[in-house]
Amino acid sequence: MFNINNILRENIKNLKPYSSARDEFKGEASVYLDANENAFGSPLNKDYNRYPDPLQYAVKMRLSEIKGVPARNIFLGNGSDEAIDILFRSFCNPGADNVILVPPTYGMYEVSANINDIAVKRVNLTEEYQLNLEGIAEAIDKNTKLIFICSPNNPTGNSINREDIETLLANFNGLVVVDEAYINYSRQKSFIQELTEYANLVVLQTLSKAWGLAALRVGMAFASEEIIAVMNKVKPPYNINEASQQLALEALQNVEQVNGWIKETLTERDNLVLKLKEFEFVVDIYPSDANFILVKTTDARGIYNYLVEHGIIVRDRSKVELCEGALRITIGTPQENITLINTLTNFK
């Protein structure tokens, strides 16, 4: 049975977190002389001279309404990358512990592991881009603390079988981290509804994709209160700046607009797939539950360079394991997609 104290690093158990001025005082006051801020304001149209809410309460309350998850089960980070890094720093002992990754997958998991001196065990996805459960079971040892699963997966675009993820959650005594950066485009339901069922589940989401707020760097982690408390303990005091908090809160009022963009993206995805299949140099287009498609071609590098020459940038994934010859293409606006197709018509 999962017990957080069995995988939490000893130094984190004993860590006394930094107590900021805004941690020590709750509520409103007329005079703030506690945080050594510039009392005269800031040289901008809006005053940013005061430190932001360290726990982003207003944003979490709005997210709670949208996601159906209590605010106490939400962590906000400087992008999902900060949440990933904090999980390594909280639960993995450098030079001793290991994590399991399932390539091809999001590259920051391995980068973060390397930065934190954590060994990586790779268990490749199957040819159908699904989990190799037997291989994962064989790779787990007493020092395996985290398993990262991206679903829908980047760069392949497909969702991972839900039953396979549940099998890991039920049988692994470390954390299973399900990265749902592209969940808004998926037919699968989010795993955040399963938080009460699995104490070892961490779900990552972001405002960078469907919500169109990549520049603000606001990532989310959903987990048990115990895990969220650890993450809040380890994070920097003011990890989400005031401008990002205010703009995120404003954006989160526009659910209908975002839902409209999602529907249009899915329609454009279907149209783009049909158009691309007409080209002889397209070998295969893999099923996608994301806002991008993985396209297997006869000459990935040649097509990539050709598109660059014409001012169109896609992602060459041809050197990634199990993605040989493939380009990852984000779904653009209708006009951007037309421009892509028209440009490719002249590729030889």
From TrEMBL:
UniProt KW Transferase keyword: yes
GO term, biological process aspect, one: L-histidine biosynthetic process
Cofactors, names only: pyridoxal 5'-phosphate
This protein's pathway: Lipid metabolism; Amino-acid biosynthesis; L-histidine biosynthesis; L-histidine from 5-phospho-alpha-D-ribose 1-diphosphate: step 7/9
Single GO MF descriptor: histidinol-phosphate transaminase activity
PROSITE patterns: AA_TRANSFER_CLASS_2
One of the Pfam families matching this protein, by short name: Aminotran_1_2
First-tier enzyme category under EC: transferase
Domain Aminotransferase class I/classII large residues, every copy: 45-339
E.C. number: 2.6.1.9
Catalytic activity entry: L-histidinol phosphate + 2-oxoglutarate = 3-(imidazol-4-yl)-2-oxopropyl phosphate + L-glutamate
Subunit structure: Homodimer.
Family designation: Belongs to the class-II pyridoxal-phosphate-dependent aminotransferase family. Histidinol-phosphate aminotransferase subfamily.
Protein name: Histidinol-phosphate aminotransferase
Gene this chain is encoded by: hisC
